[in-house]
């Protein structure tokens, strides 16, 4: 049990720093959006800055392919170490990027390179950590253990929001806009360096080592982490894209976009909006292990279906009420309701995806389809929201989120249950490599 917890703790700590670096770009964008573009329309500058944020998502499929391949061929540890190295480099670049007043659009170019590196890093981080946490967990506790991926992701965002709240209360607005926004990126670079050291001493998962030792021949080893191997699991890859669609749009709507929505659309003061997000996200983080443990008892599908039904039918009223919340407590209640619904997806989506693929292609199988889904839907969520807002039809975004959830609901209703799948036997049958394999589900006692 001790080794299981050590692996989960170290894997989660690295994930926290990765997502701190990823999310502080979004949470501090309101302060540095004007620094990299000519003075003018605040909404237009924020859209430009979030457009660069979205560009990072379009590098995630490349990172998913590259680091997923490394994770399947060299091990989960190798992929996890490389992701945090790339993230550290990107944080340093943003921290030192010159403003428009100093270098014109040169600062935008530096910002773009940094976001591309972040996209590569996070494109592999999700799958590497999802695979690692799922494989490292004790039997019968995969849902609980893998839920710590979103615990650590949310913790990273909370640290970023907490830092923002402290800075908002100790620094002037002008200082935050001129140089204060660089502080979180410096913090992120230091944190990534610490995690790099921890991950160098990370233990490989027993599932991966056993599969590596059981490889039948050199040809099987050569197929690890290749697109050719992934194409043998086209149905599972499509399933990852489809089940991610609604979840990722809802998640980014109620996490990274929430603070901006409350301040820009609901007219709430920035410090109050940040505090609403912080408290709601903290409670959301605490719910993840509880929901993950519940899925180990009742299965994954009931939680996914509950999320999709809630998001399909409650997104429009929740967002409409949030826009007119006016004060801290009503906004917090609505934000928490939305995040409770989203927990049905976030708490278990990592293990569900990992349970679909055999060990030799698991990291790539999770990474590439998930990254594609995030590039199309997650990374563009804020940009789509701002596009609707700029066009004067902000409520159109509410229906967009509900529609994405409805599509995923169809997938959840038709997919198989994955709770009882034996990770070591997934893909072992049938033996004929020309036939697609399906996960093996053992009899329950």
TrEMBL record:
The keyword Transport belongs to this UniProt entry's keyword annotation: yes
Region listing for Disordered, in residue ranges: 426-445
InterPro entries membership: H+-coupled_symporters, MFS, MFS_dom, MFS_trans_sf, Sugar_transporter_CS
Superkingdom of source: Bacteria
SUPFAM superfamilies the UniProt entry points to: MFS general substrate transporter (SSF103473)
Ranges of compositional bias, category Polar residues: 431-445
TM annotation in the entry: 20-37, 49-67, 79-101, 179-198, 237-254, 274-291, 303-322, 328-348, 360-377, 397-415
Membrane topology classification: Multi-pass membrane protein
Chief location of this protein within or outside the cell: membrane
Pfam family, one: MFS_1
Keywords on record: Cell membrane, Membrane, Symport, Transmembrane, Transmembrane helix, Transport
Location of the protein in the cell: Cell membrane
Residues covered by the Major facilitator superfamily (MFS) profile domain: 7-419
Family, similarity comment: Belongs to the major facilitator superfamily. Metabolite:H+ Symporter (MHS) family (TC 2.A.1.6) family.
Protein name: Alpha-ketoglutarate transporter
Organism: Streptomyces varsoviensis
Lineage of source species: Bacteria, Bacillati, Actinomycetota, Actinomycetes, Kitasatosporales
